[in-house]
Amino acid sequence: xxxxxxxxxxxxxxxxxxxxxxxxxxxxxxxxxxxxxxxxxxxxxxxxxxxxxxxxxxxxxxxxxxxxxxxxxxxxxxxxxxxxxxxxxxxxxxxxxxxxxxxxxxxxxxxxxxxxxxxxxxxxxxxxxxxxxxxxxxxxxxxxxxxxxxxxxxx
Length: 155
Fold this sequence. Notes:
This protein is an alpha+beta fold and 155 residues long. The chain has one domain (2-153). The protein is built from two helices and nine strands. It has helices at 2-15, 84-99; strands at residues 25-26, 34-40, 43-50, 54-63, 66-77, 112-115, 118-127, 130-139, 142-153. It is globular. The protein starts with a helix and ends with a strand.
């Protein structure tokens, strides 16, 4: 079951935020939030978050209508990064990283990814059943984005 869940998460993450399209957006259940959804077979992925440059959210996966997995996250772009063009570049770097999410670690992006002056890294521990981690983007060595996350199977 874990390998099926992992494969579904990879497809869901590639089809939602990482896709850079609004195709996965649905009317949010919570006022002021953004909600993305992806469905395949008996699985439903839902990502509900508040904010754009500083944000908090939760991803869930339901199997036959019952939530079996969840991840909570919070963080965002460093407060001293205010240039709209730089924010867009950082968000593009994140989408690239999240698009190449790995089935062995389907939480965020790969362990490392270089993109010009920007560098993405994800440091996590645990597995699909129980995990936590920190995702960062640095620009010329300075942290311009940081996100903390944790989650696992729901019993």
